[in-house]
């Protein structure tokens, strides 16, 4: 039988302050995660990156590739459209950020000095 090193004991009973502190810490972490993984940031970033790639491809297309698309430089126009859509998503994120979560009912709001 192997012996386990002694682990610190956890209190058997939690006070209301301990529970409220833990809840507020989890809410803060959750709000931060929600802002980081906002879909507008992910979608906007991907459209900007791919838009740059496709636009560069459109700028460097040969005349044969343009003739294949019946005279339309489809890579250039698609790349510009993707860039505009990506910039739209990122501007939307900047102008209307994710609101902070509302405090749960029944818990008093903590002020800056508490």
Task: Please provide a written account of the structure.
- It is a single chain.
- The chain is mainly α and 114 residues long.
- It contains 4 helices and no strands.
- Helix 2 packs antiparallel against helix 4.
- The chain is elongated and about 75 Å long.
- The chain starts with 15 loop residues before the first helix and ends in a 19-residue tail after the last helix.
Tell me the layout of helices and strands:
Elements: H1 16-36, H2 39-59, H3 63-68, H4 74-95
Helix pairs in contact: 2-4
Number of helices: 4
SSE order in H/E notation? Answer: HHHH
Question: Mean of the pLDDT scores?
Answer: 80
Give the tally of β-strands.
0
* Share of residues in strands: under 5%
Using the alpha-carbon principal axes, give the shape. Answer: elongated
Structural class: mainly alpha
Q: Please give the alpha-carbon distance between the first and last residues.
A: 49 Å
| CA radius of gyration | 26 Å
* Largest sheet properties: none
Low-confidence stretches: none
Helicity range: 55-70%
Question: Keyphrases for this structure?
Answer:
114 residues, 61% helix, mainly alpha, 4 helices, elongated
Task: Sum this structure up briefly.
By secondary structure, the chain is mainly alpha-helical. The chain is built from four helices and no strands.
């Amino acid at each position: 039988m192997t012996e386990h090193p002694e682990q610190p004991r956890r209190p058997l009973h939690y006070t209301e302050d301990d529970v409220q502190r833990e809840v507020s810490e989890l809410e803060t972490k959750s709000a931060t995660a929600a802002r980081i993984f906002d879909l507008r940031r992910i979608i906007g970033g991907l459209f900007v990156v791919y838009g740059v790639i496709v636009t560069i491809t459109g700028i460097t297309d040969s005349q044969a590739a343009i003739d294949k698309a019946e005279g339309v430089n489809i890579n250039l126009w698609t790349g510009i459209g993707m860039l505009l859509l990506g910039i739209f998503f990122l501007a939307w994120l900047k102008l209307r950020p994710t609101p902070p979560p509302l405090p749960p009912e029944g818990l008093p709001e903590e002020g800056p000095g508490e």
